[in-house]
C-alpha cells in the first residue's frame, strides 16, 4: 500500500510560508496586472494634457490630489518591482540562477534593489 497523501487540497497562501522566490514571483504577477490596469488612466492623462493649456492644467491639478499621489506611489512601486523581478526572470530564461541557493540570493537582490530604488525616488521627490 502507498503512504497517505498529506498534501493540501486547497492552498491557503496565508497559512503556507512561501519562500522568498515565491513571494517575488507572485508580486511580479500582481505588479504586472496593476501596471496593465493603469494604462487607461495614463492614456486619459496624456489625452487631457495634450489638448490645450487648460487641459494640461487640469491634468496637473488631478495629479496634485492626495489620493492620486498615493495611487501614483503604488504604481511607481509596482513598476520598480516589475522591472527588477523581470530582469531576474529573464536571466532564468537564459539558465542563469536556476540553482536553489542562487535563486534565493537573486530574489533577495530584487527586494534590496527595489527598496534602494524606492528610497532614492522618495528622496528625489521630497527634496
Structure notes:
The chain has one domain (20-126): Fumarate reductase/succinate dehydrogenase, transmembrane subunit (3 helical TM bundles of succinate and fumarate reductases, Up-down Bundle). The chain is 76% helix and 0% strand. It has helices at residues 20-37, 39-51, 53-63, 66-93, 100-126. It is mostly helical and 127 residues long. The model has no long low-confidence stretch (mean pLDDT 90). The protein is elongated and about 75 Å long.
Name the overall outline.
Answer: elongated
Helical content class = over 70%
Percentage of residues in strands: under 5%
Average pLDDT figure = 90
What is Rg? 20 Å
CATH-defined architecture: Up-down Bundle
Number of strands: 0
List unreliable stretches of 5+ residues: none
Q: Give the tally of structural domains.
A: 1
- CATH topology (level 3) name: 3 helical TM bundles of succinate and fumarate reductases
User: What's the CATH C level?
Assistant: Mainly Alpha
Biggest sheet record: none
Amino acid at each position: 500500500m502507498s503512504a497517505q497523501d498529506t498534501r493540501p487540497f486547497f492552498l491557503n497562501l496565508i497559512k503556507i510560508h512561501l519562500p522568498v522566490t515565491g513571494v517575488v514571483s507572485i508580486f511580479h504577477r500582481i505588479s504586472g496586472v496593476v501596471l496593465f490596469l493603469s494604462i487607461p488612466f495614463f492614456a486619459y492623462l496624456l489625452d487631457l494634457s495634450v489638448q490645450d493649456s487648460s487641459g494640461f492644467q487640469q491634468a496637473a491639478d488631478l495629479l496634485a490630489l492626495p489620493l492620486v499621489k498615493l495611487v501614483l506611489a503604488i504604481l511607481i512601486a509596482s513598476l520598480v518591482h516589475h522591472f527588477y523581478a523581470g530582469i531576474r526572470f529573464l536571466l532564468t530564461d537564459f539558465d542563469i540562477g536556476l540553482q536553489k541557493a542562487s535563486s534565493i540570493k537573486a530574489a533577495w537582490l530584487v527586494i534590496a534593489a527595489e527598496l534602494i530604488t524606492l528610497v532614492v525616488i522618495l528622496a528625489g521627490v521630497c527634496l
